[in-house]
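Worked Example 4.2. Consider the chain below.
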Amino acid sequence: MLAIAFNRVYANFPQIAFTILLLFIVKYFLDEFDERRKFPKGPLGLPLLGYLPFVTSKPHKHFAKLALKYGPVFSLKLGTERFVILNSFDAIQDAFRQDSFSGRPTESVFNALMPFECK
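Applying the procedure from the previous section yields the following structure tokens:
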């Protein structure tokens, strides 16, 4: 009896695995959509990598080009973390008047963008 039940489960394993994988993918995109609504508009990235593969060796120039399309304040995902990019003096002044911008990020994504150490 146990062997028959095991054979039924094993025979349906590909369908079960596909269904579970599909549920995880749907949940990922629903979470991503919900997160994007809370931030300023910006470019889409790849799952898990975000926009990191598209950033050039001079990120400040690349972000300036993106600011022409999305405005002086936009967001993008670098790796798995979402960042808000402030690309004008007025946007930076307005941001630093708020308490939510008083901390410093500790993300390792900045190390990937800036391979040298600032002294």
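The chain has a mean pLDDT of 80. Residues 13-37 form the longest helix (25 residues). Compare this with Example 4.1 before moving on.
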